[in-house]
User: What shape does this take?
Amino acid sequence: MLVASGSAAGAAGMGSMLIWLVAMVAMFYFLLIRPQKKEQKKMQAMLSEMAVGDAVVTSGGFYGIVIDITEDDVIVEFGNNKNCRIPMRKTAIAEVEKPELVSSEPKEEKEEKKKEEKKK
Assistant: This one.
């Protein structure tokens, strides 16, 4: 009887250890792996939507404008000097900012429309 009760306690210990192991793997997945994959997808989408004329920030912290795009590389123009064009990998781009569209409507008309909307 002692051997049977000892093995039953061992089986219960193994079962609880297996549950803890599964819980730890699930926790690692939801806290580490899943957010990293989500961030990678977001970065990949940002780089695929990048177009000529977009303002970018490189991983080194330099601001520039995209001049040309190839499959893996981009040519970025830095500063006001038109001769400062540097080819770099797309992966070196940290942020992309689309240029704002300028409307033909004067600023005063926009402000008046906003005031009218607030009154309603």
In short: The mean pLDDT is 83. Helices lie at 2-48, 107-119. DSSP finds two helices and five strands in the chain.
